[in-house]
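At this stage, I wrote out one protein, both as residues and as discrete backbone shape codes, and that material follows here.
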Amino acid sequence: MAPQMVFALVGLGPAALPHLRSLQDLMDRIELRYAYARQPRADRIHPYSGPVRLTDSLELILQDPEVHAVIVATPPSTHLDICQRCFAAGKHVLLEKPLELNLERSARLVELAAQARLQLGVVLQHRFREASQVLQKLLVDGRLGEIQAASVRVPWWRSQAYYNEPGRGTLARDGGGVLLTQAIHTLDLFRSLVGIQSVKSAVVRQTRLHQMETEDHVSALLVLGNGAPGDLMATTAMYPGFPETIDIIGTLGSARLTGASLQVTFLEGAPLNISSEGGTGSGVNLMDFSHEPHRALLTEFMDAIVENREPKVNGRDALATQTLIVELLRVGAS
């Protein structure tokens, strides 16, 4: 068995929960030595049951030569500074989405990782769902034929109470609204499956269901990687929230990905179904989803460090998805 790797977790808000569950499952491979928060409390590391040092000093973590990597699960506005300090200290980084508040800061973060020759993984875990990976292989193997059209829908719900929390839905803290904060996971998966050449048109708006600085509803027409048409809808105003869907029409069959479930119907041959009863965090319970994709992503990130290669979802990938989001907003504002 490979020796344990030493990790630190920076940030103990809601985004840390699936990481803590994953770290609990991977205790044979990872020693979580530190957990950082501005106000560290023991109850905030539940459900992790191993010994861990709670601290409000990032420098304490970075000065430990045995720490291999840092999981950064703090608000986007803090990412560049924290990652820059981690890279300077020789630590690999697994970073919660999005990279940063804007493209300039995001590109700088990716550049710093490359200059330091350290691995930068990004938590876009939908690619690690079993159904997503099966669909990816079907497309690579040509089982659906040539893509004729595809669509992506993220019909989620967030209450006004959610946006009343300090910084929620603001440019200063989150960097954006539904696209950058909620739909980014599904957009990243969609882009990785079918590719996106351009945004033909977009409508970006704030509905009357929310009072917030940024957008809570976006619709768009897209040109896919092979030139076929695509369309998009993303919102946090669809009560009570429904699973995200990706539909792909091919010359040999069609596929529908609903949350973590997959239905594929071929023009010839038996259908393929992968079922999942887990939630997707689409409604009031933000953390109502399985942590298994996080665990798979974390495992692959460790393997990338050991093998001295880029993680499957790396900084350049995340930058491409964030560039798409910026383009959607630009076209929608024109």
